[in-house]
Amino acid sequence: MKILVDMNLSPRWVDLLTNAGMKAAHWSTLGPANAPDAVIMAFARANDYLRPRQ
């Protein structure tokens, strides 16, 4: 499972999720901080990430 952590959540979630055996990335390492949700969702879909709801 790949999880994309949104900008409104702490990047510390990545370590927690990775330690639980999941692949996780924080949006701040992948795209611009001011990206609209539509851009983030398109990236998530194109790269097989799940994106937690706010």
Question: Overview of this structure, please?
Answer:
The chain is globular. The two termini are 19 Å apart. By secondary structure, it is an alpha+beta fold. Strands 1-2 form a two-stranded parallel ribbon. It is built from 2 helices and 2 strands; from the N terminus they run βαβα. It has one domain.
Instruction: State Rg.
Output: 10 Å
Question: Number of helix segments?
Answer: 2
Q: So what's the overall shape?
A: globular
Helix and strand sequence: EHEH
User: What is the residue-mean pLDDT, rounded to a whole number?
Assistant: 91
The total count of strands amounts to 2
Distance, first to last CA? 19 Å
Contiguous low-pLDDT stretches (5 residues minimum) are: none
The largest sheet is: 2 strands, parallel
Q: From the helix content, strand content and strand pairing, which structural class follows?
A: alpha+beta
Percentage of residues in DSSP E strands:
5-15%
How are the strands of the largest sheet arranged? 1-2
How many distinct domains?
1
Which range best describes the helical content: under 10%, 10-25%, 25-40%, 40-55%, 55-70% or over 70%? 25-40%
